[in-house]
């Protein structure tokens, strides 16, 4: 009986490890640890934010390069929209990278961004490397990753 109970406990613990800790606007779910080994950019945006709108094509490009550059882009709608309102807005704003339904900032003990756009740069170990405040470009984002990647290697 003890062996059986231990096996059941092991199965329950393993299945708990597979639970989703992130929900995406497209209805899919995943885990943040699936991005371990990659740089993760979590970008906070809003429809009313002009610099956010300007930055989206840069983030889209970085997202499409993701397989070759080891950088994953995720978005967070600052206004907390969900459902059809969010998916319609994603289409209207031509956002091509995944958008999270739940704000992950507490995972890295961060306050709600006071300025938009704001981007969290998460290193391949899942740790917050830098908070980038204000609009970014493809060059500034890749430079930030390169700067931290070089520091991590020292």
How would you describe this protein?
This protein is of the alpha/beta class and 154 residues long. Strand 6 and strand 7 form a beta hairpin. The radius of gyration is 18 Å and the shape is globular.
Task: Give me a quick take on this structure.
This protein is α/β, with parallel strands linked by helices and 154 residues long. It has helices at residues 2-17, 50-64, 66-69, 83-92, 138-153; strands at residues 22-23, 29-30, 39-45, 71-77, 99-100, 118-122, 128-133.
What is the terminal separation in angstroms?
A: 52 Å
Order of helices and strands: HEEEHHEHEEEH
Structural class: alpha/beta
The number of distinct helices, counting runs of at least 4 residues, comes to 5
The neighbouring-strand order within the major sheet is 5-4-3-6-7
Instruction: Count the E strands.
Output: 7
Proportion in helices? 25-40%
How would you describe the shape?
globular
Summarize the biggest pleated sheet: 5 strands, mixed
Q: What's the rounded overall pLDDT mean? A: 89
As a whole number of angstroms, the C-alpha radius of gyration is 18 Å
Oligomer state of the chains in this structure: single chain
Any low-confidence stretches, pLDDT <50, length ≥5?
1-16
Strand residue percentage: 15-25%
Task: Present the secondary structure layout.
Elements: H1 2-17, E1 22-23, E2 29-30, E3 39-45, H2 50-64, H3 66-69, E4 71-77, H4 83-92, E5 99-100, E6 118-122, E7 128-133, H5 138-153
Keywords:
5-stranded mixed sheet, two-stranded antiparallel ribbon, disordered N terminus, globular, 154 residues, alpha/beta
